[in-house]
Amino acid sequence: MMTTIKNIYCVGRNYTEHVSELNNAMPEAPMLFLKPTHAWVEADGREIELPGGKGAVHFEAELVIRIGKPYEKGMRADELIDGLGLGLDFTLRDVQSTLKEKGHPWLRAKGFPASAPVTPFIEFPGVEALKSMDFTLIKNGTEAQRGNSQQMIFDLQHIIDYTAESFGLGEGDLIFTGTPKGVGPVADGDTFSLRLGDNVLGGCRTTLK
Fold first, then answer.
1. In angstroms, what CA-CA distances link 205 with 45, 66, 157, 175, 188?
2. Which of 1, 5, 98, 106 has the fewest C-beta atoms under 10 angstroms from its C-beta?
């Protein structure tokens, strides 16, 4: 099975209620940004160290798709995606706010080491089957976020086509597809469990240093 992670694409502002909770403008096209491969770490229950001296760190749970072959125009999502996972887009929110005010890229707020934990991948159930599956983030035993692919502003096919046409897309690329409402701060010692339906796919414990 393919294990090499190549590009990590992320979609910002892809759930209406999340756009509203952060008082952002509604996007007219997928808002894409990148994380370095150093941001990736497997969310397999391990402890993850995050920067605690740079202001608020926020969690954002997301469906993550893995691309299994080079993209060619006209390909459907079901034939391109070879794995499904759940991920956390950890964000330095204060840093991001400052960067946005200055009109600078978000990389320092989004791309630090271990800012992209992803559960082990499972077989992709298909675009239609996925619509019947909610994903949830359980923080310290309490549900913090719940989402469903049907709630996306831009669906998986749109995201794939737009990403491929803008930057290229091939085997080993990951796409974080956006987060539903409920994002919030991370504290030292928090535990996170990522679930698809009733199945726990992975999780992590955070340490702020």
1. 7, 24, 33, 23, 9
2. 1
Give 23-71 pLDDT, tens digit per residue.
677 778 999 999 999 999 999 999 999 999 999 999 999 999 999 999 9
Mean pLDDT of 184-190: 97
Structure tokens at 12: 């910002």
DSSP string, the chain: -------EEEEES-BHHHHHHTTPPPPSS-EEEEE-GGGEEE-EEEEEEE-SSSS-EEE-EEEEEEE-S---TT--HHHHEEEEEEEE--EEHHHHHHHHHHT--SHHHH-STT-EEEPPPB----HHHHTT--EEEEETTEEEEEE-GGGBSS-HHHHHHHHHHHH---TT-EEE----S--EE--TT-EEEEEETTEEEEEEEEEE-
Q: What CA–CA distances, in Å, run from 56 to 1, 93, 100, 151, 181? A: 37, 6, 15, 27, 17
Strands 199-208 and 191-196: antiparallel
Asked whether the whole model's pTM tops 0.90, one would answer: yes
Q: What is the pLDDT of residues 106-125, one digit of tens each?
A: 999 999 999 999 999 999 99
